[in-house]
Amino acid sequence: MIEFLQQLINGLSQGAIYALIALGYTMVFGVLRFINFAHGDIYMLGAFAGFYTAPKLLSLTGGGPSYGGAALVLVAAMALCAAAGVIIERLCYRPLRAQPRLTVLIAAIGVSLFLENGGQFFFGADPQAFPEIIADSAIELPASWGEFASLTLTIGQLIVIGSTIVLLAALRTIVKYTRTGMAMRALSLNPLAASLMGVNTDAVISFTFAIGSALAGAAGILTSIQQPSIDPLMGINAGLKAFVAAVLGGIGNIPGAALGGVIIGVLEALVVGYINPTYRDPLVFAVLILVLLFKPSGLLGKAEREKV
Amino acid sequence: MSAILSIRDLVVCYGSIKALQGISVEIPKGQIITLVGANGAGKTTTLRTISGILKPTAGSIEFKGENIGGLPAHKIVARGIAHSPEGRMIFSNLTVLENLRMGAYLRRDKAGIAEDIRRMCGIFPRLAERESQAAGTLSGGEQQMLAIARALMSRPECLLLDEPSLGIAPILVQAIFEKIVEINRELGLTILLVEQNANLALEVSHYGYVMETGRIILSDTSSALRENPSVRAAYLGG
């Protein structure tokens, strides 16, 4: 039981990362009906944005690791990634909007390769140590918890899970209650009708890329708090798994992406804890195959039906 | 009687195919003007070009004296032309209320929007009953009412109405056309109506244009068109 709970905690903090990345895949799919395969690399850019800005930002808040400094690093990485996402869409995807979707998909793979190799060129191919932006340590659980006191829960894990919850709540508020959020939903349902309502579809698409990329950037920082070794290819694996999470939840469905991320994270932890760490990656892709075979619309996605 | 919307020598191409081969239409303020014709005559293309979904190849579209041809769709709504498209295109996963709010997307006057939503619910009581339901769960006729109400939410001066009777139970078609006449009369709204059911269209409109393969072959007051032997033979079932 304790062992199971421990794996659940580990899985949740990894699942939170997948969830944040998966949201970008699903949101972009919602408005453009295409998979942005460069999205995982935005997550990598987020980690490097933190790597380069952290020393400056931490010195603003007193020099050492601190919550204020970490928050600044997080916000800076999110802002830089949002800008990168908007620029990539503007330069690489928008000119291809009228072309067949396969063309844009191939362009996205091209952007992904560009970011990975450009990253190796500019940041160096060797893994780098991410600076310590918060003092991470295990939390001493009260002895009165009995056997539960032996669980390991770190400050880093709490911050990852807590930040993810806050970001998800913020995203939900934007999508559900703001004018732009409503335009985003309308656009994903019917782009033509949305433009007839006065929605500037290009602007809403840019906004969607900004939000999705900012969330991936946040994931890059949050993951680096737990595993402080970053490299320019770190986005490949995480991006693929987050993509599986988005498909599992139902591509295009925002709560689905969050749920899918958490499920993938927890499944991975259980496989690592109970079976064999070697099976971690195969498991994720087995999930993808099973979803595509038995419920292609995903857990929360609805098969579209037209009414006459 | 001055035209609020006038189309001159409009040419629209899909690739190398000329869908409109130079049509001219005058739409006087406050009237219902109809385009009738068979499938593929270019009626929907005309509406889509006015609302900015399609780009004109040649010719001009003047609205209140300014050329709006080629502007993107979202800028044309802002000028005061609303388009209720063929096939309704309601936002099926949004609620009825959210659909109406989307219609008022460019407006910032919260109180005015709330008041207009109440007004739409007055015109179409069915919508009031279902305001928090997902729009996709409405019947075809109710969806059409929603599409019209949604277009009216932008407070347009001119409404483009594409095939409001398409795929709707006959009993509701009558009701919807009564509403169209009511909206025209009470709000003084100019309406450009495209409709396959020529009988119905010529009954409610003031003036009509008959289209065939991208051209206008005839235009006259609607009552005259109804009496015209060739129109009767081709479009009104003899």
Number of domains of chain B: 1
How far do the termini of chain A sit from each other? 53 Å
Shape, principal axes of CA atoms of chain B? globular
Estimated helix fraction of chain B? 25-40%
What is the class of chain A in the CATH system?
Answer: Mainly Alpha
Structural category of chain B is: alpha/beta
Choose one word for the global shape of chain A.
Answer: globular
CATH homology superfamily name of chain B: P-loop containing nucleotide triphosphate hydrolases
Structural category of chain A:
mainly alpha
The CATH architecture classification of chain B is 3-Layer(aba) Sandwich
Q: So what's the CATH class of chain B?
A: Alpha Beta
What fraction, in percent, of the residue positions of chain A are helical?
over 70%
Largest sheet of chain B: 6 strands, mixed
Low-confidence stretches of chain A: none
**Which protein chains are joined by the largest interface, and how many residues does each one contribute?**
A-B, 19 and 30 residues
β-sheet strand percentage of chain B: 25-35%
Give the number of helices of chain A: 11
Largest sheet of chain A: 2 strands, antiparallel
Which series of helices and strands of chain A comes N to C?
HHHHEHHHHEHHH
Strand order of the largest sheet of chain B: 6-7-8-3-9-10
